[in-house]
Amino acid sequence: MTNAAWQLFDVPTQPKLTDRQEHALTVIQQAGAAGVHTDELGAAVHAWQGRHGSDDICEFCASAGQELGRALRAKGLAQQRRRKAVGGDTVTVWTVAGRLPRERDHEGVIPF
Ligand SMILES: [Zn+2]
Known about the structure:
Layout: H1 4-8, H2 19-31, E1 36-37, H3 38-49, H4 61-74, E2 78-84, E3 90-96
Antiparallel strand pairs: 1-3, 2-3
Helix pairs in contact: 2-3, 2-4, 3-4
Bound molecules: zinc ion.
Zinc ion (ZN) binds near residues 42, 51, 52 and 60.
């Protein structure tokens, strides 16, 4: 028995992520096509780390979200997109890179 056959089934190497980056990616994936705001991304990771509750925002959430979003973007896993918020403002959110997952819950709401 050799390793050669087994290696045929090797998955392409995944970018190496820290635990925080992996959690941030999960948050972005779960946000789907709607995306997640930088503050929310940082808050979700802070809550996961036990720094504060999941509904709280601290003064470091935005920088944490920015840092994690940029790190994931550099690895080709996340990208920023513009979304129209309620009230007409444009917000920038993080989503998974490339093709977005199908929007199931709000079908037809996002016009692009
Ligand atoms: Zn925070």
